[in-house]
Specification:
Layout lengths: L8 H10 L7 H9 L1 H4 L5 H8 L7 E7 L5 E7 L5 E9 L2 E5 L3 E3 L8 H5 L1 E4 L2 H17 L7 E4 L9 H12 L11 E5 L3 H10 L4 E5 L5 H7 L8 H15 L3 E7 L7 H10 L5 E7 L13 H15 L3 E3 L17
Parallel strand pairs: 4-7, 7-8, 8-9, 9-10, 10-11, 11-12
Antiparallel strand pairs: 1-2, 2-3, 3-4, 5-6
Helix pairs in contact: 6-7, 8-10, 11-12
């Protein structure tokens, strides 16, 4: 993908100045990079010539798989170096959401996650992340659908492990002069990368933060998420409290329910106690199947009982995530390139 796709507006101004073009043209160039209609406009000889020297390169589509639910599509995209990532388009009532990957593979090693089993191969550039959003928007436009309304950094990889490029990509995606998705419609998921949470809090952006917990003790969580040894629960929850204090926002606590491992009444009671007094919302995610992990999701009845306990004993707002694209491996934890 062209590195220009990942330049923030300020970075684009500086680059234009370095290359002898008056940065007063930056708004026009930025629109041309990120809005298809603007690309068809004549911007003046010098600007058009400069744009022609920096074309955006669309990712190569290796696979396009539609889910049986008819509203979820998973795309396997090949990058310029031959590496491949998956990105997912999810349709909801009146809106579309992009699930964007931030790395090829992942270094976090969560035992129930297909991406984690790949190991870490490399970070994506800001341009490669922006290109996923462009690709999905152009797919929607070609099918006469409305553009993306939401972006979730919940695809392959740990976004906060690739902090700088992810923030640059989101600067472009949320810039009204560019892609124009509102910051409040962006979610960033993390396995609990405390340094990244702290840096994100300092930026005071309006992005939503989702933190994967999955265990109510260090022993339980460590069996599922190896990096818990580096960032244990108490330190992680303290970082979440600090994040809420600094930003004024709730933290979304993600809890993947695995039958017999973390779905009992006792687990629910202990989780409620851990989160007592915190500014959070809990999102329950029945386990999605992945190769080489023998766990299974709990029954619907057990999931609802877990939700009830959190609500009644902890006074917590609790949702159950809609399961989308499970049949084509497009669900949470299933992306593997």
């Amino acid at each position: 993908m062209s590195a220009f796709m990942g330049l923030t507006f300020r970075q684009l101004q500086l680059r234009m100045k370095e290359e002898g073009l008056n940065p007063v043209h930056a708004p026009v160039v930025f629109r041309s990079l990120h809005r298809k209609a603007a690309r068809m406009t004549n911007h003046g000889d010098r600007v058009d010539e400069w744009l022609a020297r920096h074309p955006g390169v669309a990712p190569e589509v290796v696979r396009d798989i539609a889910s049986g639910d008819q509203v979820t599509r998973k795309f396997l995209l090949r990058l310029e170096d031959g590496r491949e990532v998956e990105t997912v388009l999810m349709g909801y009532e009146g809106r579309y959401t992009a699930c964007v990957s931030s790395q090829v593979g992942c270094a976090m090693g969560c035992v129930f996650c297909a991406t984690g089993k790949m190991g870490f191969l490399r970070h994506l550039t800001a341009g490669e992340m922006v290109a996923q959003v462009h690709f999905l928007n152009e797919h929607l436009a070609a099918n006469e659908k409305s553009p993306l309304r939401n972006v979730v950094m919940m695809g392959m990889g740990e976004p906060l492990h690739n902090f700088g490029p992810v923030m640059a990509a989101l600067d472009v995606i949320t810039d009204a002069r560019g892609v124009g998705i509102a910051p409040t419609r962006v979610s960033i998921s993390t396995v609990g990368h405390i340094p990244g949470i702290q840096k994100l809090a300092a930026l005071k952006r309006k992005y939503s933060l989702a933190v994967s917990l999955h265990g109510a003790s260090d022993e339980e969580r460590g069996a599922l998420i190896p990096v818990n040894k580096r960032w244990p629960i108490r330190q992680l929850l303290e970082a979440c409290r600090s994040y809420s204090e600094v930003t004024g926002q709730k933290v979304l606590i993600s809890w993947t329910l695995i039958a017999g491992a973390n779905d009992s009444d006792d687990h629910a009671t202990r989780l409620a106690e851990l989160l007592r007094g915190m500014k959070v919302q809990v999102n329950l995610i029945p386990l999605n199947p992945t190769e080489d992990f023998e766990g299974r999701p709990p029954s619907d009845e057990r999931t609802l009982e877990f939700q009830r306990i959190l609500r009644e004993s902890g006074g917590l707002p609790v949702t159950i995530r809609q399961r989308r694209g499970i049949d084509v491996g497009a669900g949470c934890g299933q992306l593997a390139g």
